[in-house]
Give the backbone structure.
Amino acid sequence: MARSAARTTLWGLALAIFATAAATALGTPVLGEAMHSVDVTIVAGKNASDGSFDFNGYQHGAMTVTVPTGWQVVVHFENVAALPHSLIVLPSGAHQQSAPSATPAFPGAVTKNLAAGLPKGDQQTVTFEASKAGTYEFVCGVPAHAVVGMWDTLVVSATAAAPSVTPQGAATLRVK
């Protein structure tokens, strides 16, 4: 009887190891495994000398935030400019549209009142999973703001081991 119980326990352990290995190979989170997450702070209108059409003081894609594929991204967005601003993550090249698409590249990657924007002093947190590798843009969704330069770059990388930002210090990143 003890031998049968030991054999059953060994088979159960082997099955659990196999299931964990298969789930990991397929990219499926294993029960109890924590999802990687990064908090990013983005401030609209930080540099008054550019007419407040910037994110963290950067325009025209000059700031690049890189996150590994599959990570959760939590953007803490604040508008400090006198003009209203918003934020949406769109595919690369979206900044060339006078009125950007209202459909984000990733579900949840958009602030409320996209076209109207958030007034000075308003803050909003948006959360999304960077589920597909590629180059995207943080774009202000207020019509014509992106065209004049209010956009920066988001790279979702299949090879990055950790989030980063260039130029260094351009945004506050906090890994969880």
In short: The helical segments are 2-25.
